[in-house]
Amino acid sequence: MSKATFTNLTTDLDVIQKLDDLPNAVGGLSAADLKAKFDEAANAVKDYINTVLLAQLQAETSGQAGANRIGISGIVGLTGTNNVQDALAAIYAAAQSAQAGTILNKSITAEKLADNAVETPLIKDGAVTKAKIASGAVDNSKCDFSSGLTVAGNLTQQGKIVIDSDCYGDTLPSTAETGRLFFLKVQ
Q1: More exposed terminus of the chain, fewer Cβ within 10 Å: N or C?
Q2: 13-19-21 Cα angle (round to 5)
Q3: Higher per-residue confidence, 48 vs 96
């Protein structure tokens, strides 16, 4: 969308400069007329601000609203906008998209992923899938396994073998899974 423009003040404000050198004698101005000439330019500016400029700033008509008339410089990640109204609309659309499940690039920072920033109850079961954790995405520098934390997968990557309760028990599972080891507890 293009930027709407403000109406320029075009009134000639050189009122005093255009008076005769002897405005009372040559121009025939009375004292009251001369005083009015001194106020004429200021009143023209006041009238322009109050009746034209403020009306355009406060307008709510689509395409002519005040925010449509205020230009902006470029905002990283925001394209196709050259006024405040379009920028607000684009930001709102991005927020709606994020609410619909799309996360904007670079919107998740290290601070958002810091220790205890995301609590277990806030992550829906099944939300983090194998595809989301690519090979090498999580390594032993990112996980502390010293407290007995267990994970599925190649556990030797963490420098030790940890067996979780899915891999041992009192009875053998009824069906075997390829590549799975199961340890039977001996009493």
Answers
A1: C
A2: 145
A3: 48
